[in-house]
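Quick bug: ATP-dependent DNA helicase Rep output formatted oddly.
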Amino acid sequence: MNDAQREGVRYLDGPCLVLAGAGSGKTRVITQKIAYLVRDCGYHARNVAALTFTNKAAREMDERVRKIASKELIKGLTISTFHSLGVRMLREEARKVGLKPQFSILDSSDAMAIVQDLIATTDKGRLRQVQSTISLWKNSLIDPEEAEKIAATAAEAEAARAYRSYNATLKAYQAVDFDDLIRMPTQLLERDAEARERWQSRLRYLLVDEYQDTNACQYRLVQLLTGVRAMFTAVGDDDQAIYAWRGATVENLAKLTTDYPSLKVIKLEQNYRSVQRILAAANRVIEKNPKLFEKKLWSDLGAGDPIKIIPMENDEAEAESVCVRISAARFDYQAQWKDFAILYRSNHQARVIEQSLRNMKIPYLLSGGQSFFDKAEIRDVLSYLRLIANDEDDPAFIRAITTPKRGVGQATLDVLGTYAGEREIPLLAAVFEEGLAQRLAPRQLTPLREFGEFMHRMQWRAGRGAANKEPPAPAEPAGPIISDLLSAIGYERFLYDSGEERTAQTRWQNVLELIGWLGRKAEEDGLSLVDLVQHVALVTMLEKNEEEAPDAVRMSTLHASKGLEYPHVYLVGCEEGLMPHLGKDDEDGDPAKAAESLASRVQEERRLMYVGITRAQRSLNVTWCRKRRRAREDVAREPSRFIEEMGLDTDKIVDTEPTLSPRERMARLKGLLKKT
Ligand SMILES: Nc1ncnc2c1ncn2[C@@H]1O[C@H](COP(=O)(O)OP(=O)(O)OP(=O)(O)O)[C@@H](O)[C@H]1O
Ligand SMILES: [Mg+2]
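Here's what came back:
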């Protein structure tokens, strides 16, 4: 460690902020400081917590700490995301915030389904808008009453009304959404001195990575957790703030200096990650943004290879070219697959690249994208299976009973949710209660009961007995139950009714793939449907954890790559409209406001570009396409303004190599395969 880093690690006289550019060893200060606290300063690991933003970053930090501190020393240490700390706090404090300890957590698509029922529209864009407005309010600790007061436009007024019912609905379902995981503990600590003191004495030292991306709520939570003692270290880089769209605010860095007059600010200037050419390009790009804090960065890792700027004909050529180049570079640099990363702005860019990687049999690992188990159709089908296995899975009940629609409206679900909440029973059980029947009209009750009976029949076939029925017969094999279930609910027809034919086809294929996989699994391992569901939950979890680190090319969105580093980086799709991706202009008509919002969006995209460039250690390749397919048309594209901003006068290599013909490509590939 250099002197500045050491100072950051050793400083314990009060709050400390390490403010420095990419790759300067900020995260390293955190991991070293954890070791220092538990090894040299007598802190109990259970009194120390380090917070980051993604599971991946948390895991990475955990690995780094394990390398420098012994197992016994770090027993009980908390290294987690803000969200998982929130879950832990809520589980322990559930009763104080009016929840059962086994409350469920809705992910954003479950939450979207609720919003959809509250707002009478099929306009997906509008629904997303409402959902994100509610989310921004939650993250700024604005409650529905206040939101109604401050709503300035008709759209915001609509969102504010939806916000109130949305919260009521969640409460009725004994469920929370992602934002609640941080908002509710924060509000609890705010009003409950006993809980506040308990948590403060439990977490005696707090470390926060990527501080520039905290939102108002997270800022407040850290403040409440650390109290007047203010024993914390935050590290961050205002130039890497890329979550403004989710309510994060860089001002939190400046706010720290005013909220804590005794704040110790430490700056780091040496970059240990990237060769000079890469660092210089990154610095030149970020210079174009207004500065919040003065920062310098230098590297003594040598000039390194020239950065390559590679124009391509279209996105397919781009994908192929990147794959061919990676194969060649793997040989040239004597590198492994896992030393390469392909980074892109939007998830939809991944598909073509995945196709090429598969064609060329290059192993790859996709992160930050939508996994198979997150696809809507898979989640639909799994919601039925989850409910077969577990009566109490209320979010699964809600998803299943509303997909496909079977004439159960929001009003009915509200009554059901409230009734089940009062009686403290699961929704599925509530359906059959006389007390519920008295609150509903027969036309509301009938579809509920039909659904309940249908689910009970399925449970019965799966070997589960219902309370009021005879003991279950032996379980039928899972395969036929699932097929019968899908035809009974008309799921294939539902897919074709709700989307265009091609998408429906792909989605139905995905469902068939799932059934096939489940069927094989059931047969091979002799699993019942109930076992299977648990198995799937485990697989889903494992997939989300990506525990193993196989030798494979990394594919990631720029956002998900934050904090990570790779020897060789391919930054693809660097075109105007994609990178920067500027979205639609504001529609409120005020030109001055529109210009201001455009400027701030460009700045946020520039920071994202800076994040992308600074992931690279040894080599950087930037590609853009002259044409890109959108919907069914080829659209002409211009190179990203950021390419010019990188200012690559001397090392600018405009690669003129034409797209290879298939025959040339095969010849070249064969040559490469021979070499490796
Ligand atoms: N003093 C040091 N000596 C040698 N290597 C170092 C030193 N400090 C950090 N490094 C290495 O430099 C790289 C970047 O460090 P780190 O990830 O901590 O930077 P960071 O400031 O957190 O970057 P980012 O802003 O991208 O999150 C890592 O590989 C780390 O191991
Ligand atoms: Mg870091």
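Actually, after a second look the formatting is fine. The first helix runs from residue 3 to 10. Closing.
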